[in-house]
Amino acid sequence: MRLILLGPPGAGKGTQAARLTEKYGIPQLSTGDMLRAAVKAGTPIGLKAKAVMDSGALVSDEIVVGIIADRIQEADARNGFILDGFPRTVNQAEALDALLAAKAMNLDAAIELVVDAPKLVARIVNRAAEAAKAGHPVRKDDDPEVFKTRLEAYFRDTAAVTPHYRVKGILREVDGMASIDEVTKAIDAVLAHAS
After folding, report:
1. What is d(CA 109, CA 3) in angstroms, rounded to the nearest whole number?
2. What is the Cβ-side half-sphere exposure of residue 163, based on CA atoms within 13 angstroms?
3. Interval 2-20: pLDDT, tens
4. What is the average per-residue pLDDT within 113-139?
5. Which of 31-35, 87-91, 168-172 has the lowest average pLDDT?
């Protein structure tokens, strides 16, 4: 099972990825985690990434795709994986297509958690207020202004990826505003038809 989870910040991708990981025994691949691991391991692509990050520049698509190429060859990803946070652009989606084709692999589905942006902002504002009221630290990402900026960036940049997968015929939309359990059931239904 090879999946991509798409959707804006706060849509619940991390929660659903954790449930999918548990159910299918496949890893959730976060590009940030993979970059840090490759740098720490001192792999050739990790050394390239370290040089770029040390200079303060953004890591190129080529390096990120190289890290994914290395990671999906590891034993725990043999039966599949969940990409969360990648691809973020159409160029990255095309590079991923080429990588998978070269390895004779394909994606089973790209699942988009569709949300109502104003309601999502209200959900995050409420979560931040509840955390503050309970005396818990408010996550930096839950600051309403920070969150709105991240949401705008998603709709400006990453939302362009969904039509790429729609054209390929593998995009499946799930109501991300439903309860966590309802979203899980909807994803399970999608995957029952994908396999």
Report:
1. 5
2. 6
3. 999 999 888 889 899 999 9
4. 86
5. 31-35
Distance CA 43, CA 132 (A): 42
As a whole number of angstroms, the distance between CA 166 and CA 148 comes to: 26
CA dihedral 112, 118, 123, 126 (to 10 degrees): 160
**Structure-block tokens of residue 112:** 């988009």
How high is the mean pLDDT of the chain?
88
Confidence label for 103 from pLDDT (cuts 50, 70 and 90) = very high
The pair phi, psi for residue 176, each rounded to 5°, is -75, -5
Q: Pick the residue with more confidence: 25 or 85?
A: 25
Nearest to 73 by CA among 110, 43, 103: 103
**C-beta atoms surrounding 180 within 10 Å:** 11
Give dist(CA 127, CA 145) in Å, integer.
14
Using alpha carbons, list the distances in angstroms from residue 124 to 6, 131, 148: 18, 11, 10
- The first and second tokens of residue 156, run together, are 């400006």
Whether the bond between 137 and the residue before it is cis, its omega within 30 degrees of 0, is no
pLDDT, residue 165, reads 96
pLDDT of res. 84 = 85
Q: Give 90's Cβ-side CA count (13 Å radius).
A: 10
**Could you tell me if 184 and 47 are in contact, meaning their C-beta atoms sit under 8 angstroms apart?**
no
Q: All domains of the chain, ordered by start, with CATH?
A: 2-26+79-115+162-194 (3.40.50.300)
Which tokens belong to 109? 């589905």
